[in-house]
Write a structure and sequence with these properties.
The structure holds 2 protein chains of 2 kinds. Chain A is mainly β. Helix content of chain A is about 0%, strand content about 55%. Chain A has no helices and 11 strands. The radius of gyration of chain A is 14 Å and the shape is globular. The radius of gyration of chain B is 14 Å and the shape is globular. The chains are: A mainly beta, B mainly beta. At the A-B interface, β10 of A face β4, β5, β9 and β10 of B.
C-alpha cells in the first residue's frame, strides 16, 4: 500500500449504530487530518493530530470521536449520528503541522457515509 | 475570518484553454494551493503559490496576486480527463498549518 488509505470506502449505518472509520498513511508523515465533504460545500476540517496529539478541534459534535494511536493511523469513531452527517469523510496527512513550511496535504480516497 | 470564492461550475471544449478564478480574504496569508478532485476520488495536489507570479507545470499554470487576494488556475489543451472539481485552498498564518478550502469549481470538458 502506498499513500493514504481509508476503510471502509462505503458505509451505511442507522442512527443508533456505532462504527469506526480507519485511515492509514504510509508516507512517514507527522500530521493527520479528518475532513467532512458535503455536496456543494467546502471541505470542512474536523480534527488535526500532530505527533499523535490533537492540535485542532473545530467545534465538531461529540458524536464524532477521533483517535490517533500512532503517527500512521487515525480513526474516527461514530455513534448516534444524524442523517445530516451523511457525507464523504476524507483523511489527509502532511509532513508536519507547521505554518512556516510548504506542507502539502495528501488525501485518502474517502469513506462515503450514509446515515439512515 | 476567512472567505474563499470560486465559481461553482464551468464548461469548456476539448483542446481549449480555461481559467478558474479564486478570490480570498484572510488575515494572515501564507500560501495558496490548488487541488483536483475527480468524482469519488481523493483530491490530488496540482500547485502551490506563496509569492506573486505565475507557476507553470506542464499544461497547468497557477497565478497569484497577494495584493488583490486573487489566484487563477489555467488549464491548456484541455482533455476529457480534465473534467473534475478544482479546489482552491488558502493557508492562514494565524491558524497554524490549517488549510481553508473554497467550495470547488466543477469543470466539464465537452468534445
Amino acid at each position: 500500500e502506498t499513500g493514504v488509505t481509508q476503510t471502509p470506502r462505503h458505509l451505511v449505518m442507522g442512527m443508533t449504530n456505532k462504527k469506526s472509520l480507519k485511515c492509514e498513511q504510509h508516507l512517514g508523515h507527522n500530521a493527520m487530518y479528518w475532513y467532512k465533504q458535503s455536496a456543494k460545500k467546502p471541505l470542512e476540517l474536523m480534527f488535526v493530530y500532530s505527533l499523535e496529539e490533537r492540535v485542532e478541534n473545530n467545534s465538531v459534535p461529540s458524536r464524532f470521536s477521533p483517535e490517533c494511536p500512532n503517527s500512521s493511523h487515525l480513526f474516527l469513531h461514530l455513534h448516534t449520528l444524524q442523517p445530516e452527517d451523511s457525507a464523504l469523510y476524507l483523511c489527509a496527512s502532511s509532513q508536519d503541522w507547521d505554518r512556516d513550511s510548504y506542507n502539502e496535504q495528501f488525501f485518502g480516497p474517502g469513506t462515503r457515509l450514509t446515515v439512515l | 475570518g476567512q472567505n474563499i470564492d470560486q465559481p461553482t461550475e464551468m464548461t469548456a471544449t476539448e483542446g481549449a484553454i480555461v481559467q478558474i478564478n479564486c478570490t480570498y480574504q484572510t488575515s494572515g496569508f501564507n500560501g495558496l494551493f490548488w487541488y483536483q478532485q475527480h468524482a469519488g476520488e481523493a483530491p490530488t495536489f496540482l500547485s502551490y503559490n506563496v509569492l506573486d507570479g505565475l507557476e507553470e507545470k506542464g499544461r497547468f499554470s497557477s497565478f497569484l496576486s497577494r495584493s488583490k487576494g486573487y489566484s487563477y488556475l489555467l488549464l491548456k489543451e484541455l482533455q476529457m480527463k480534465d473534467s473534475a472539481s478544482y479546489l482552491c485552498a488558502v493557508r492562514d498564518y494565524n491558524q497554524g498549518g490549517k488549510l481553508i478550502f473554497g467550495q470547488g469549481t466543477e469543470l466539464s470538458v465537452k468534445p
